[in-house]
Amino acid sequence: MPSDVSAELAYLSATDALAAFRAREVSPVELLTAVVDRVDAADPVVNAVVESLRDEAFAAAREAERRYLGKGAGEVRPLEGLPIAAKEEHPIAGRPHQMGSLLYADNIATETHPVIERITEAGGIIHVRTSTPEFCAAAFTQSKLWGLTRNPWNPEFSPGGSSGGSGAALAAGYAPLATGSDIGGSIRMPASCNGVVGFKPPFGRVPAMPPYSLDQYCHDGPMARTVADCALLENVIAGPWKGDVVSLRPKLVLPEAYAGARGAEGLRIALCVNLGDYPVDPDVAANTRAVGEALRAAGAVVEEVALGWTRDLIERALLAHFAAVMGAEAGEATAAAPDLVTPYLRMFHEQTAASELSFAEGLALEGEIYAELGELLDRFDAMVCPTMALPAFPAGEDFTETKLVVDGVETDFYLHGSLTPPFNICSRVPVLAVPSGFAANGVPTGVQIVGKTYDDEMVFRVGAAVEEARPWAYTAGRRPAL
C-alpha cells in the first residue's frame, strides 16, 4: 500500500507539479511513482486502465528530470514530466486500438491522434490508457472486452461515459490530466460523476481525425481536477492541424492563470435548472442553485431562467443525427457479429434506425434548438445548468431493459439522465463542466458553464470564479476513500 505522502503527491495539480519540478522540490520520477502507486492500489476496484505504458513512462520521466536539472537534454516544455491518462479512443500508432469491442480486440493503430502527438511533443508522459464503453456509444463505461469501470467515490455507481475511464483516473489519483472526447456529453458526464473538470471545446477548436473530425457533434478536449489545469492542457491540444479541415485558425491561447484573475464581478449569468422539461434530482438541483448563489456572492448578477426545450425535441434531433453517423457504424458492427457486441450497442443502433426524420430534417430541428439558446445568451455572458439530471447511473446497468427514473419521472430514453446533448447539437458553444458538490450517495454532482459561440475565455473565467467561491473535493483536500 502506498504511503500517505505518496498518495497526497499523486493529487498534486498539474500547475503545482510543474512549479515543484522547476524548483526541484519534486522530480518527475517521484510524481510518476506516486501515481503508479495509486493505480496499483485503486484499479483492482475502479478498473479504469486498459493499457499501461509504465516502462516507456519511467524512461520519459527520467529524461524530463534531466531537462529540469539543465543537463543538456533540451528545453523544458509546457507539460514536461507530467503523467497523463489518455482515453483509449485516441489511437497511438503501433499500440492496441480496441474501442472497448471484442470485434477490435486484435486491432493495432497505424496512426497517432493529433491530441496525443501534441501532448507528447509538449513533454507530457502518457502512462495509462483509459476505458470506454464499446465504440464510445454509451453514457456509462462497461464492455465485454474490458469489463465494468466503477466510480472511485462510490463503486456502486458508474463514472459516466464515454470518457469514464479518464474521469475515474483523475478522481482516483492516477494522473493530474487526462484526454477525453465528447459526442453527446462524454467529457462532461464523467466530469460531473467524478467531481473533476472537463471542457467541451467549440467545434473545430481541437483537431480530430477524419471522418469524425467532420461530425459537428464531436469534440476532443481536456479533463483535469482544476480549472487552471484544464486550461493548461487545452492550450497544448488546441489549434489548427494539417489533417483536419475544420480546425480553426488562428489558435486561441487561454490566459495561463484563471483562479481569481478577474472573478465574477459584474457578469450576467443565466441559471437554468431544468433545460425545459428535464426532471432533475433534488440534490443536483440544490447544488446547481448553490453555485448560482456562490456566483451572486462573488459579484455576478444571476437570474434564474427557463427554456422552452423539451426532451422529445432534443431526442428527435439527436437520433436523426446519430442515425447517419454513429448509429450506422453500430449497425454495421451488430450485423457483422451480433453475439459479440454489447446489448447497449444493439439498442443504440435500433434507436437511431427508428428515427423518423431525415438528416436534413434533423438539421432544421438543430437550428430551432439553437435559436432559443442564442437568444438567451445574447442577454447574458454565460448560462449555468446541471450536467447530469442525477448524480450517476448505477454501476453495471445498461438500461436495455430497465427504465431510468429521475425525481419520480420514468423516462423511455436513458440519456434523458444527462443535460449535455443539447450542447453537442449547439456545437459551436464552449461548455466547461465543473463540480457543484456531492449528493447524499457520496457521488459528486456538477454544472455546465455554457458560453456564447467560440467564447472559450468566458466559460473558463466563470469556472475559475466558481472554483474560488465554492472549493470542491480536490481543491479542498477531499479524496475518495479507495
TrEMBL record:
Transmembrane segments: none annotated. InterPro entries: Amidase, Amidase_CS, Amidase_dom, AS_sf. SUPFAM superfamilies: Amidase signature (AS) enzymes (SSF75304). Residues 30-459 form the Amidase domain. Belongs to the amidase family. This is Amidase family protein. It comes from Streptodolium elevatio.
